[in-house]
Hints:
CATH topology of the largest domain: Aspartate Aminotransferase, domain 2
Mean pLDDT: 92
Radius of gyration: 21 Å
Strand content: 15-25%
CATH superfamily of the largest domain: Type I PLP-dependent aspartate aminotransferase-like (Major domain)
CATH class of the largest domain: Alpha Beta
CATH architecture of the largest domain: 3-Layer(aba) Sandwich
Amino acid sequence: MTTRNHAQTSPQQSALNSSQRVSHLAPEIPIVRQDTPRSAAHTFIDLASNDYLGLARHPRVQTAAHQAIDQWGVGATGSRVVAGTVPPHHCCEAKLAGFLGFPAALLFSSGYLANLAAITALVPSGATLICDTRNHASLIDACRLTTAPRIICDVTKPPELAAALQQATSSVVVCDVVDSTDGSVLDIPSIYHATHAAGSLLIADFAHGLGVLGHDGRGALPALWTNGQAPTDLVITCTLSKALGSQGGAVLCSAEQRQQLVDTARSFIFDTALAPACAAAATTALEIIASEPTRVERLHQHMSALTNALDLPSVTAGVVAIPLGDPTRAIAVHRTVLSAGVGVGCFRPPSVPWQRSGLRLGGRADLSAEQLIRAITVLRDAL
C-alpha cells in the first residue's frame, strides 16, 4: 500500500521506458501505435472490439440512430447547460438508471469524461482517495485533477483495503469493476460492504460490465439494491460504447449527486453534449438487452468455448487475456493472427507493463459457430 500526494503512477506510465527498450531491442517490430482504418466491408472475425453483444450494427439500434438524426440533426450543437440537451438524452438517462437500479443518471460524451466528472465533482473536500492499483487511465487522470491525497492499494485484498480505510478519516474508494486488459472481475459487493461500514463513498467504473456481467448484464449490482434501488454511497460510471454498441458515457448516482454534476462537473458544463443519435441508439440497445437475455448468455457461452479451447482461465466478463510476456512476440503473433483473418487486441507498453504484454480477446455474442471454430483454430496455430 502506497500513500501519494501527487499523481498515481499507472501501469501505462511505468511502461513508457519499456516501450523505448522494446524498440531498441527489436526495431523491426516497432511499438509505435497506428490508427489504421478498417474497411466497412472487412471480412476478419472480430475479437478485437468491445462490441460484446453485436449491437453496433443491430437494425433496431441503427434505425433509432437514423431517426434521431432526422429529428435532431447530427450533433447536439452545444453544451447540455446551454442548448445541447434534447429529449433523447433524458430518455436514455431514465432507461439506464432504471436498468441499473439508480435514482438518476447523467450522460457524457465519453466514458473517459464521465470518470473525470464523477471524481472531480463528487469527491468531498478533505477526503482521501483510495485508488486500486490497476485502475484505468481515465480514473487515474481523474484523481490527478483533484487536490486529494491518494492511497494506492489492491482493493481486492481485504487487509489492504481495511488498512487504507482505517488510515483515512474521510475517504472515497475508486476502482474498476472489470479489468479491461484481462477480464478479471472485482467483488464489488464485498468492496462496497467494506466502504459502507467505513462511511466511505465507492465510485466504480462499470464500463466493461454493463450488458455483460451476470445473466442479464447487470452483474452483482442487484445484490446491493434495497427495494430495487442502489445505495446512495455507491456511484457507478459506465460507457455506452461497448456492450451497448453506441458512443458516450454516464454517471449513475442519486438525484442530488446528479445535480451536483450538472452544477460543477467541468467535463459536462464545458463540453458539447453527446450526439442525440448516440443517446437514442443506446436506449434501444438497453431495450434489446432487457428483452433478449439469450444474447448475454451467448456471449458467456462463446467466452467459455474460447477459454476452454485455448486452455485459458475461465472468465465471467467479455474479455480474456493470452499473456505472452515479450512485447515483440505479442506483436508478431497479433500480425500472424490478423493475416489469417482473425482480429484480436494486442496489449503491450505503454498500455500495460512489459511483463503483461499479450493478446486480448473480446467475446462476441453474434459470432456463428463456424466463426468461433475458425478463430480458435487460427489462435491455436499461432500460439
